[in-house]
Specification:
The structure is a homotetramer of 123-residue chains. Chain A has 123 residues and is mainly α. Chain A contains five helices and two strands. Chain A folds into two domains: 75 residues, Orthogonal Bundle (Arc Repressor Mutant, subunit A); 44 residues, no CATH class. In chain A, a hairpin with a 3-residue loop joins β1 and β2. Chains in contact: A-B, A-C, C-D. Chain A binds a DNA duplex (15 and 15 nucleotides) through α3.
Amino acid sequence: MSGLWDDNQPIYWQLRERTIASILDGSLKEEAALPSVRQVAVDFQINPLTVSKAYQSLVDDGLVEKRRGVGMFVCAGARRQLLASEREKFLSEEWPKLVARLRQLGLDWKDLEARWPGREENE
Amino acid sequence: MSGLWDDNQPIYWQLRERTIASILDGSLKEEAALPSVRQVAVDFQINPLTVSKAYQSLVDDGLVEKRRGVGMFVCAGARRQLLASEREKFLSEEWPKLVARLRQLGLDWKDLEARWPGREENE
Amino acid sequence: MSGLWDDNQPIYWQLRERTIASILDGSLKEEAALPSVRQVAVDFQINPLTVSKAYQSLVDDGLVEKRRGVGMFVCAGARRQLLASEREKFLSEEWPKLVARLRQLGLDWKDLEARWPGREENE
Amino acid sequence: MSGLWDDNQPIYWQLRERTIASILDGSLKEEAALPSVRQVAVDFQINPLTVSKAYQSLVDDGLVEKRRGVGMFVCAGARRQLLASEREKFLSEEWPKLVARLRQLGLDWKDLEARWPGREENE
DNA sequence: GTGGTCTAGACCACT
DNA sequence: GTGGTCTAGACCACA
């Protein structure tokens, strides 16, 4: 019940991001049911409304679909869609900004390369 | 009035970050005066209180000093201090998280390397 | 499983409306048997209880009658009854609201006339 | 405090639709401030969260913009955007369905024409 | 002053 | 069982 949540971000958003991560890493398969709103609420000791808000945002993005009276399910194609959009977002938006910042800090390519797991001694 | 501010972050924080960037890239030299609270407020169409909050946070970090009746000035040594702390923060906190995220997205070292300015054709 | 149901309306209601449409257009004749609850449930991949609820609402309105051990049948006079009530409902309730909305949208009589099948070129 | 809300639709949705109607009919001008969440909550005797949900849906559709710590404002171009999208939706989606239904009911063009305000005796 | 978020608990409709 | 909606009231950050 502590250390689970980062207090600087809304819980519903963090829950959303965790769910996305689960889809990406395969622990939530496509067509699989998401844990029910109530279950998650109990498990994480948060309000059902908060869970609902997180899930709804996924529905809005077309990653999850509701089946009335049954539950919420990962959409077919959700993983592929996520991979594409997240990669695109990173490469076109985040990376250029990051590069600019690194330049400003005087950090070089080598500095990063040395800290990329598995590359420390190879090259 | 549009595109100037990212609505997901407090304006005062964005102003702080911009000021830091100016110190880092040298457009705000050490010992130089920061533009006055009023001036910034007018220029950016924001509340003077917001500017004040941004400047105060810089004072709190020892990057800027207030000289009563005169204005706010970049501290001597501010740039060096910034370089050190920002580098440390990036390498120990941000980079590891980023690496984890990239793995999840299936983005490889090569993908980034190809987009590091000046390296596209070298290696 | 996709496109069959409008997620904004209860499934049982949509099934009811479809059945009514079948009676109106004559594909479900008076005195004819409705497809069995089980059959519909299988065909549309929905819960038998949901089908039951739809049929029951038709019984409540006197459009369909249950014959124990045999099945459900369209009542004699159902079509005439439907025509009268639906016309009345449309003209007195729906059309006035629609007219108000069209005004707000600046849509004119002509705009609709042009899209009434068979009138495009007549007048 | 009674008769204000239709119990068949969520309040937040009805509030959304009312606001849209206000923009369309000009009682809410572009760039004008929407009444504050709290004010609406008091005026209509509903929960601030419900108002918030309504307003947020307008923000999501790009019809309203938030100005941090100041309030919510009708976007420039919101009215034009609304007119275009609502007309399009009506003519391409709703009207064809309506026409089919009217045919089924045996209602003719004349029946509607007679009830279009201001046309009863003209033509 | 503004809106954002969360809780605790209730009631509802649908399957 | 499922999710959707709403209330009442709290606390927070921002301007």
